[in-house]
Amino acid sequence: MPAASAPAPTSAPAVPSTPPTGPAAPTAPGKPATPAAPAARRGLRSRWTALAVLSTGVLMTVLDGSIVTVAMPAIQKDLGFTPAGLSWVVNAYLIAFGSLLLLAGRLGDLIGRKRMFLAGTGVFTGASLLAGFAGSPEVLIAARFLQGLGSAMAAAVSLGILITLFTEPRERAKAIAVFSFTGAAGASLGQVLGGVLTDALDWHWIFFINLPIGLAALALALPALPKDGVQAGPGLRAGADVLGAALVTAGLMLGIYTVVEVEQYGWLSAHTLGLGALSLALLAGFTLRQAKARTPLVPLRIFRNRTVIGANLVQMLMVAALFSFQILVALYLQNVLGYGAAETGLAMLPAALVIGAISLGASAPLNSRFGERNVLLTGLALLVAALGLLTRLPVQADYVTDLLPVMLLAAGFGLALPALTALGMSGADEQDAGLASGLFNTTQQIGMALGVAVLSTLAASRTDSLLSTGHSRAEALTSGYHLAFGIGAGLLVTALVVTTVLLRSTRRS
After folding, report:
1. Architecture field, domain 45-240+295-502
2. Distance between CA atoms of residues 122 and 126, nearest Å
3. What are all long-range contacts of 24-29, with beta carbons under 8 Å and residues at least 24 apart?
4. Element of type H or E holding 218
5. From CA 361, how far away is CA 382, in angstroms rounded?
6. pTM for this model (two decimals)
7. pLDDT per residue over 352-367, tens digit each?
8. Domain extent listing, the chain
């Protein structure tokens, strides 16, 4: 199997190259030579400041996805949501975010990634204020949709900006590790923060917390991110594919809506099959359009790179499986063991800490020494072990002996995500960087939607079946969670196989 080619530099390195050895050029009398090192350090500082801004943006996105989960009972009680309506607090965000990422990524390539990031962060921050003041289910759901829109605009171009800023392999590996840490640990930190804010104040503050973060990100992004004069594309008139944009956005939105509604309608219902078929038809029409369009929204050349295809497929499987860890473990702690919101968040904290330690401290040197593919395989193996242990959880589990080892094995996510991110962006050059970033984020959201639909439906079905035969509620819930954990482990094993077959070995740098 041939080795994967290294990502082509997408912009000139910001750090000046070392001058060749030999006699120094004479300087004008009385004018000392200006050292290059301070300029190099300033360039490096500016790039890491830009990385901090991008990481702050992804932190808001990830926090918002997980911080809501532990506050759902309080939101339902305060606003009077029905059980079916409550799911739309999550679904509205998921549908907007997942369906608009590709479009936002391509628009960022065409009109400027900095413009798109600033606009998205502004929309998200404003929508968070609206969500915090929401006094009815309708207003909260609308605000969540707008949050998803803003998240899609900012997240779709973040990786594209990152890979154009960091062109040297070692620096890029470190930058991706920091960026991935924010996403990996942010989900668990969101559960902690959501529990503490809900118990100490009220659920409104899980949205108000985004305001200072968003305003700080906007203030820092203006001077820190590279100007669109350097990165901007040909503009909407030269590069827009309106028909393609309509087809892919409608197809993804309808597809994600169909998946998240499976729990209510069932997989074989006319509702699911009909809307699913329509979604596939729209996406097929989009593919045909891209093959013929003069300026396609998604140039099909990006799918010729087997590493990009494999990385996105592995991500869908991994994220779908890890829904069972992030969400179902929290539900097990609350519904079976009787933990409160803050206790649940603190119980998940070791996972966030170990993910952060691994992704920040170990992933970059490991990727450089052993290659992203090998590190990814190791991370996936650890995650399989974690979900395997979860399938054996007793009804009355002891945290230290039954759950803490699982939290520590979550280190696999800290290994897998940075490696997977690097692989997913490895085939993108500068003109397609926003597109590759949008595609990578899109498959993440599709995986999450599938995880929500498949694993929660199977767990609920097993639980209802056991309740009808006289089992206790705790026993029925635990058995349902066991089934979901087992299916999640199977998805991760499939991801291991896909990694072995499709992803190419990377060169050690």
Report:
1. Up-down Bundle (1.20)
2. 6
3. none
4. helix 210-224
5. 18
6. 0.70
7. 788 878 877 777 788 8
8. 45-240+295-502, 241-294
